[in-house]
Amino acid sequence: MDTLPIVRTVADLRAQVAAWRRAGLTVALVPTMGALHAGHMALVERACTLADKVVASVFVNPTQFAPHEDFERYPRDEAGDAAKLLAAGCHLLYAPSVAEMYAEGRCTTVAVGGPAEGLCGTFRPQMFGGVALVVTKLFLQALPDVAVFGEKDYQQLQVIRRFTRDLDIPVRVDGAPTVREADGLAMSSRNAYLGADERARAPALYAALTEAAAALSGGAAAGPVLEAAKARIAAAGFGSIDYVELRDADTLAPVGRVERPARLLAAAWMGKARLIDNVPVVTA
Questions:
Q1: Is residue 184, in this structure, part of any structural domain at all?
Q2: Of 1, 37, 143, 190, which has the fewest CB atoms closer than 10 Å, so is most exposed?
Q3: How many C-beta atoms lie closer than 10 Å to residue 199's C-beta?
Q4: What whole-number distance in Å separates Cα of residue 210 and Cα of residue 41?
Q5: CA distance 4 to 13
Q6: Which CATH number do you get for residue 252?
């Protein structure tokens, strides 16, 4: 196959998936917003180990962006994305238009509590409703056996797991480990917004979280450790720090000391780029 097949309508997507089903094949879905990098390719490669056929979607979802956010300037490169997906073993690209995804007059929403509350849910209150709506639609459009998401967006992953269980959607949600640059920076399409000096300072976010996670795993109380992490992030040149918080790894409920698997999550601004990251915290 020299070029990756692309479908742009729900009908064409379902027709291809139905043909695979008739042949007795399983299907994995990798939802993305495009501007693909090695982290996305790791998701596709993981999906190839979980199912016979892999569909990747590329759709910059307007419902998860607030009016002041970067929907219009979010990086887009469909041709480059398709070439990367083909090289990673993907079998089909689903690239719907906004009109195809959201019918005129739509009036249905999907609201999620629990893991959607706090963290990015506070600073981007529109985000998880938009994520829940578009992912629910993608699940129903593609009807995959499994869908693969990255742990880099850990809160998003837990939100998707929650509404998938709550709505009895018959899709297994798989989380893949964060893929990082050699200096530790989590790979993200928004890293393209970083200038050279900002890019050099950005790995301090992961370094601060890693140091804090080690202290928390050793039994330290969360308060002082989180304040020290914020200070280190600020000293590295980050601007506004949205949050550095310790949460239960499953429910994302706040915790003060690590007594079961937890997650340390952070979001901070480096120039025009809002960077998020997280690391696991386990008991000693």
A1: no
A2: 1
A3: 18
A4: 25
A5: 14
A6: 3.30.1300.10
- Check whether residue 86 and residue 203 sit in a common domain: no
Cβ atoms of 72 and 60 within 8 Å: the answer is no
Dig out the tokens for 76 from the structure.
């887009």
Distance CA 269, CA 193 (A): 11
Q: How far is CA 264 from CA 36, 205, 255, 278, in A?
A: 26, 12, 10, 5
* Cα–Cα distance, 131 to 106 (Å, whole number): 16
pTM of the model: 0.96
Distance CA 19, CA 25 (A): 9
Burial of residue 118 (number of CB atoms within 10 Å: 0-12, 13-18, 19+): middle
Q: Is 68 a catalytic residue?
A: no
Residue 227 CB coordination number (10 Å): 12
How many domains does the chain fold into?
A: 2
Helix axes 154-166, 127-142, angle to 10 degrees: 60
Q: What is the pLDDT of residues 59-109, one digit of tens each?
A: 999 999 989 899 998 989 999 999 999 999 999 999 999 999 999 999 999
Catalytic pick from 37, 40, 68, 91?
A: 40
